Amino acid sequence: MTAEVKIKFGCAPIAWTNDDMPELGSENSFEQCISEMALAGYTGTEIGNKYPRHPETLKRYLDIRGLQVVSAWFSSFLTTKPFEETKQAFIEHRDFLHAMGAKVIVVSEQGHSVQGQMETPVFKEKPVFTDSEWDLLTQGLEALGELASEKGMAIVYHHHMGTGVQTTAEIDRLMENTSPEKVSLLFDTGHLVFSGENPIEIYKKYQSRIKHIHFKDIREAVANGVKDNQDSFLVGVKKGVFTVPGDGMIDFDPIMKEIIESEYGGWIVVEAEQDPAKANPFEYALKARKYIDRLLQQKELI
Ligand SMILES: O=C1C[C@@H](O)[C@H](O)[C@@H](O)C1=O
Ligand SMILES: [Co+2]
Questions:
Q1: Closest ligand to residue 161's CA
Q2: Which domain holds residue 21?
Q3: Closest approach atom of ligand 1 to CA 237
Q4: Which end of the chain is more exposed for a tag (fewer CB within 10 A), N or C?
C-alpha cells in the first residue's frame, strides 16, 4: 500500500430485499444476504427489514461474518407531524444504532414525499417545501442532531428523489440553514445523477460536512425513460434505473479522487436497489467490490 486509505466499504441489504417494496427479494433470507455481503468483501452493512432488532442477536450474526452495522435509514416527518412523534421514534432508532456501535444516523424527511407512491410521477410531482416547512425541517433536524450528539453520534441527511430535498438548490438551502455541528450530509451518487445534479460539485462544496456515502450507479436509458414516461420512483427502481458502481453512466474515478483527496474516513456503502430476480445481488455486490478495488489500484492505493 503506497498511501493510507481510511475509507471502509459496506453494502446495503436493499439489493437482496427491498424495504420500499418488500415483494422484491422476499425469497432472499437474512443470513443469505449478510453471508453474501461478507463473501463479496464488505465489512459493513446497513439494516434491512429482515434483520433482528435485538442488538445482541444481530451482533452474533454479524460478528462471525466480520460485519458491523454502519447505519440505518430513519424517516422524519418534521414538515407534517408534531415534532414529538419524530422525536420519540428517532430516540428509539438512535439507541438501537448506538448499541450496535454505529456513528451516524441516516435521516430523510418523508413529509410530502412521493418516493413510496407507485403511481406518482417522481419528476413532475416531487414536493416543494414552503418557507414555513423549511423552518420546521431545519429546526427539527438541528434538534435531532442534538439528540444524536448526546450519544456521540451525528445525523447525516439523505437527499432523495421524490422528496423536498432532492436538487442542488434544495441541498444548498438545507446546508445553509443548519449548523454543521448539528447536521451533516449523506452523499448518494445515484440520487444526485438521477435528479440531474453534478455529484462532483456537491462533493467539493460539502466535503467537510459529508459523513456518509452511498455509491450507486444509473442506467442512463432507463433514467431518461422514467422522465419521459412520467414514471414514479418505485417504477423506476423496478425498471432498473439503479445499478452498482461501474455498471452504469457515472464515472466514479473523479468522484473517488475527490473522496480520497478530502481524506474522507467514513464508510462508502454500495447501495444499488434493483430487482434481485433480474440482478443477482451477490453477483452485483461482487462486481461493485471489484470495480472499487480497480479504482483504488489505479491510484496505487492498494
Ligand atoms: O438510502 C436509501 C434507502 C432506500 O430506502 C431508498 O429508497 C434508496 O433509494 C436509498 O438511497
Ligand atoms: Co441512499
A1: 1
A2: 3-298
A3: 9
A4: N
